[in-house]
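Mods, move this if it's the wrong board.
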Amino acid sequence: MNNERPSMLIPALVGGGLAGLFSAIPFLNCLCCLWIIGGAMLSSHLLAKDSRVNLSSGDGAIVGVFAGIVAAVAHAVINIPLQAVNVQIARRFLERLAQFAENMPSGLNAWLEQGPGGVTLPMFFLGLLLSSVIFAALGALGGIIGMALFGKKKTPPQQGGTDVTQDPGRR
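Not the wrong board. Structure tokens:
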């Protein structure tokens, strides 16, 4: 019997890539944490589907962490071209908020006119590092949940063994 576990690379790439994509798209990114957990659950489902042995919750956590890291990288890369859209959405939101609020911070108007600076390399890597840590933790949670839902294999009934309660000669 083959007790080898399947590779975690493809499930982590698929689940993490989809989670990173959905967490970077404007308006869908409101559910960012749920996308990461869902992507890790998908990764653990794909891992359990290809496995011939029962997998533990630790296996789900590991593939979930990998999926979270992949999601963080995908999120960071996809978010670069979408940053201008996100800035415009934030700017419009703050302008509408300023119309209804009386006491806004003093530098808000200057910030709205100037806008935030572009992406700098240190800020990109700092954001990637922070996202990787948070997404890995959420991915571990999603992997554990996914393995609890999808990881159990049904064991086939034993062949050739006799059960004492089924033997008609015994009372």
